[in-house]
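Researcher: First entry.
Model:
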Amino acid sequence: MPVKPSPDRIYNYDLNYDTEVIKQRVDKRRERMLAKQTEAQAALAELEDRAKVVLGAQGAPTYAYPAYLNFCRELWKKSRKFHDQTLAKEAMVLQDKWTARELKKSILEVLRKEVFGIADPV
């Protein structure tokens, strides 16, 4: 199979990245994109509030809250992509990662189980 010459590649690249066409596409999608982002941010804020309540009940030091919330954010992102046993295994990987960063495993387990409802993997 012959390889395209460089000028052809540059021409095709330029066609694909016409800024006016991109702007039109984004403008058509903007309302839906904004609605989805608004919904996602509200869900994330609600999750962080629940996590803060759990952190307070567990006696986590306030200086460690950002790290625990980062764990929750990562787990939330995984929960939007994976389900069931795959999510449980991914959650354990994240839990091990944050335990290695010197967060308490017991608190991470409570966050995983109470805030996200993710049981231990089988």
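Researcher: Second entry.
Model:
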Amino acid sequence: MLNELVKRLWAQKPDRRGADRVRAKFGIAWLRGTELVPAHGIEISEKGLLLATKEPPPGPQLEVALDLAGRRIRARLNVTRRDTLTRDGVDWTLIGADFQGIAADDWDAVVRFCKQRPDPGNKAADELAELAKTDDDAYRLLPLKVQERVVQTLVAAGRLAPASDAKNPLLRIAYGGPTRTGGHVLLVHSRRNADGEVLLFDSRITVDQAGNVSLDR
């Protein structure tokens, strides 16, 4: 079994994690552009996770989508360990990684899963979930500097209130795909209050490879 091979391979390696790890199978895929590359979740803790993939992701960081206790979670990971093993003639890459970017409510779900705590499911939790929708996963996964530039650009265009906080702006973002020059397109729905009226805006923003932000429309 893959899990047994993983256990034997990593048993001799020092464990530098400060959080309890839970050995459990869970669905996970890593993002290659807009493509989801399937993998196998093996372990998870409140600080990070371990996965196995037939196609090794390049670079020290990757974005993933995982299914945990019936919840779809998006996160950005920082790779800390990488090993390879062969099972039934198939080469696997083992990736150990720490969470670098994850929505607060999704991280709460990870902690509950690791500590075997039930979902609170109360009114307060529902209200917090509604508030979290003003700052969705796509926005949270952006680097902080890019988040700030997106907010500044929308404020300058009058599509967000001047005092908008980059940590909790009144906007939602969907990924629009890559550009021909290696940048990325963001589709932004924002709103602001003006003289008691709520104004809604749909914007198209491009982020280049250097993290510079431009408003296309």
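Model: Note on the second entry: The helical segments are 2-10, 104-114, 123-132, 137-140, 144-156.
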